[in-house]
Amino acid sequence: MPLPRRGTKQLFWLLLPAVFVAGCRAEPTAGPVPSAPALKPPTATVPIAPPQTTGLAPTWTQLPTLDPEDARALLMELEHTNKGCMLPCWWGITPGETTWEEARQFFATFAILEPGSTGTITIAGQTYPVHSYHVAYQDAGNVRDAATFYVREGVITEVSVGMDSTAQAFGIRELLRAHGVPKEVWINTFSAAGPSSRPEGFLPFRILVLYRDRGFMAFYDFEGHISEGTVVGCPEGVAPRIYSWSQDEASLWTDERVQLVSLGPDSSELKGLEQVSSWNVDDFYAAFTSGSEGACIETPSEKWSG
Fold it and tell me: pLDDT digits over 258-271, tens only?
């Protein structure tokens, strides 16, 4: 059944196919992502089952649909435990290992499945068809975004997880404690002038925690505030968007693609932590994993445009 669309959620999910398009063309050794899109516009509606042309005919058996009480109990367990696995695995689904049939069988017991776009991706000179599928679920009468899966040759190779499904297990403190010091931290905000649509004294503040070598990143988007020429960001309690990918697509996640996936067509720029603050990644890790909750990061407003 088609999913209801709600406010900014609609823009977020509409941007995802475009983001995937812009990032997929890169060859593993080709460097920056070219401007030409790799994903071709869909020419037909994508069925929920993987196309027969992939050679993977459906073989799974539909499990019984859970009643609302059992479904809610399962969701609470998934949101708090991530089904016992570590990123890039999410809810038991690991990019590069889990097939779409396995994931579909699991989600069909409690979630809504919706087909997305179809296109191609080129890796080491070989072009493959790629299909995307969106998963959402009902919670207290509301439809909540779960994730979008990108499938190549029947296997999930990329996962984009929405903020509705990350609050319990992937707050910045929990993420860092579970996965250790990140390789990279990027920041995005604005100067004291800021966007005119924001309340006075408040600015968008984005923190990207990137474990590129492990195949995932978490993007925290919230309101910062201005204090004596400094923009202050306090990400405690913020649910991130999470992106994970298979190891054979690791080289596709260039700086350019990370920027595009995180901010979309936003004209502003993500900047390295050490470039715009007095912290390095070890300082960042220590600040948000030790001591009391409520840690904040500061960056001079002069480092940012309005």
Answer: 999 999 876 789 99
Q: Tokens 């779960």 correspond to what residue?
A: 146
Q: Is 138 exposed, middle or buried (0-12, 13-18, 19+ CB in 10 A)?
A: middle
- With CA atoms as reference, report the closest residue to 257 among 186, 170, 306: 186
What mean pLDDT is predicted for residues 217-240? 94
Verify that 188 and 71 share a domain, yes or no.
Answer: no
Same domain, 130 and 225: no
User: Which helix (H) or strand (E) segment is 188 a member of?
Assistant: strand 184-188
Confidence of residue 141 (pLDDT cuts 50, 70, 90): confident
Provide the pLDDT for residue 192. 67
- Out of 110, 136, 162, pick the residue that ends a domain: 162
> pLDDT at position 140, please?
75
Residue with the bigger pLDDT between 203 and 210: it is 210
Distance CA 258, CA 270 (A): 9
Looking at the structure, tell me whether residues 139 and 184 fall in a common domain. no
Angle at 161 (CA atoms; ends 121, 149), nearest 5 degrees: 35
Q: Please, how many CA atoms are within 13 Å of residue 18, restricted to the half-sphere of its CB?
A: 10
> What is the DSSP pairing of strand 126-139 with strand 297-300?
unpaired
Whole domain around residue 200: which residue ranges?
Answer: 170-306
The span from the first CA to the last CA of the chain, in angstroms, equals 42
pLDDT of amino acid 79: 93
- Count of structural domains, the chain: 2
* Element spanning 5, H or E: none
> In the listed set 109, 143, 162, which residue is the last one of a domain according to the structure?
162
